[in-house]
Amino acid sequence: MSNMCEICEQETTFLTRRKIANKEIVCEQCIKRAKSLTFKESISLKRLTVDRVKESILESNERGEDVLNFIPTNEIGDFIKFDDINELILVPGGFLNNDIVYNYNNIIDFELLEDGESVASGGLGRALVGGALFGGTGAIVGGVTGKRKNKEFCSSLRIKITLNDINNPTIYINFINSKTKTNSFTYKTLFNSAQDCLSVLQIITNKENGTNNEEQQFNGQSNADEIRKFKELLDEGIISEEEFELKKKELLK
Length: 253
Fold this sequence. Notes:
This protein is of the alpha+beta class and 253 residues long. It has 7 helices and 15 strands. The strands form 5 sheets. Strands 9-8-7-13-14 form a 5-stranded antiparallel beta sheet, covered by helices on one side. A 4-stranded antiparallel beta sheet has the order 3-4-5-6, with helices on one face.
């Protein structure tokens, strides 16, 4: 028996699958998206049909058709999902809010905010700045370092995405929203997720702008190699920490 959701066609687990009428299976996420279901429908799942869930998703979301057709080809935790086939991004809305779906070509720019301060930014027609380097595939090399300050706690870490939509110009993706120790496993994991998100967004905007060319890839890889060489010199005691940081800043400009 297949455990695929009849609506989004994603594999379900024991915890995420829901059996509805005719023993059909839908995932928990699709049930959450069907916000116009009545209370009776939401608690009597065995009387609920696939068609009714689809109808409710269409009613509940401004871009319900895109939500129904969304095929996640990449996702970063529960924070953001990407559909490279239909070129869509989806930010899950949770129980109270609708999922946000936009086309790749709607993205204008984005920035990583830590406690309200911008520590990295990128977008359409420009390289990511803030101390991050991109290699040939667009992945961050060496991590975001730019304007970050050494501190014991972080209370807010989120990415702001600016969209070409006058009615909904901004999306926020929240990674941290409570006081978290910066040396904790939780902080490091979530910060890495934020960096992964920056990488994917930069790849998307490069592609949309037609700037993901071989020259950029070569330059990114070359600078990364140079930093690695200077790091080896630092580890061998040939140059000082100050000299290494100075050279790294020059290469990251």
